[in-house]
Amino acid sequence: MKILITGSNGLLGQKLVALLQPKPDVTLVATSRGANKLAALHPDLRFVPLDVADAAQVRRVLAHERPTHVIHTAAMTNVDECELNRTACWEQNVTAVAHLVEVCAALDIHLTHLSTDFIFSGDAGPLDEEAVPAPVNFYGESKVAAEQLVRASAGRWAIARTVLVYGVAHEYGRTNIVLWVRDSLRAGKPIKVVADQWRTPTLAEDLAEGCWLLARHSAQGIYHLSGDDLLTPHAMALQVADFFGLDKALIERVDASTFSQPARRPARTGFRIDKARRDLGYAPHSFAEGINIVSRQCE
Ligand SMILES: NC(=O)C1=CN([C@@H]2O[C@H](COP(=O)(O)OP(=O)(O)OC[C@H]3O[C@@H](n4cnc5c(N)ncnc54)[C@H](OP(=O)(O)O)[C@@H]3O)[C@@H](O)[C@H]2O)C=CC1
Ligand SMILES: Cc1cn([C@H]2C[C@H](O)[C@@H](COP(=O)(O)OP(=O)(O)O[C@H]3O[C@@H](C)C(=O)[C@@H](O)[C@H]3O)O2)c(=O)[nH]c1=O
After folding, report:
1. Which catalytic reaction applies to this protein (predicted)?
2. Which ligand 2 atom sits closest to the C-alpha of 176?
3. Which of 5, 72, 220, 254 gets the highest tally of CB atoms within 10 A of its CB?
């Protein structure tokens, strides 16, 4: 099988390259906007520049590469930036998906599309695949619209929804909950962490494995691929501090009454992953194991 991934410079993209590149029965094509960040790590990686918001590039690259599967990870993932720059958010997260859906259906390419718990209101969680979307921020709205395009596709598709992904990436501009807590406490910096949001945080390597399982089986439908521990960010922060032996007094427990971000966050999400366990054999690490794995990758 020939797998083309979009957003290969991103956190999930980098884990997919690390997972798929060594597989003898997979021909891998990594694509992303801008220069390839993985050339030094994977010198024999086939990399093709692809801005998925450009319809002509999508058509040209997919027609030339002729993958059997696309794993679409590229997106604008800064939720606050999406709230403030809605045009760019819609371009990257919706218009781009319209191009991919059109070409994948025309060329009979199986499309795995990445989606999020942020399509939900956060009124009740953890959620299974039957839950009804009701987003509370613009990023969530864009990802609902993207799912609707994929679900209306005439082609073969799977939607992989995930939650609060954490891990270590190379030359990576963004942080995530585990690294942000560890690095803040190591620097002696006090942090305010919410105790009224609920998530099932996801190790990036587990998400990559779940996406591989979907592609390998050319699975069809919606799958929740997250961790299985339902935790608040405050509880996560305490676990990170304990693991690395850092000062928990620097962690201030807050809630929505005193902590807010430019974009609203859904309060209670998190996913039930029974369907992925049953259908795919998906088996994520616990949050504690995930912190341990991250610690072994860090400088
Ligand atoms: N991270 C998380 O907690 C969660 C992520 N998800 C979803 O999973 C997917 C992967 O997330 P993650 O790996 O964390 O995201 P990252 O932000 O780490 O990576 C996204 C990558 O997509 C690239 N990109 C953005 N726009 C385009 C474009 N038009 N063409 C090509 N590449 C583009 C970015 O490149 P550049 O650096 O140039 O911007 C970036 O490298 C996304 O679809 C996201 O919505 C869902 C739930 C949780
Ligand atoms: C920055 C910050 C975050 N938090 C909490 C809020 C939130 O529950 C959690 C993560 O906050 P962040 O703003 O870093 O991440 P956030 O934008 O909430 O992460 C989201 O990213 C997109 C891509 C998704 O698809 C979602 O699943 C989710 O992972 O940590 C604090 O408690 N204090 C803080 O100072």
Report:
1. dTDP-beta-L-rhamnose + NADP(+) = dTDP-4-dehydro-beta-L-rhamnose + NADPH + H(+)
2. 14
3. 5
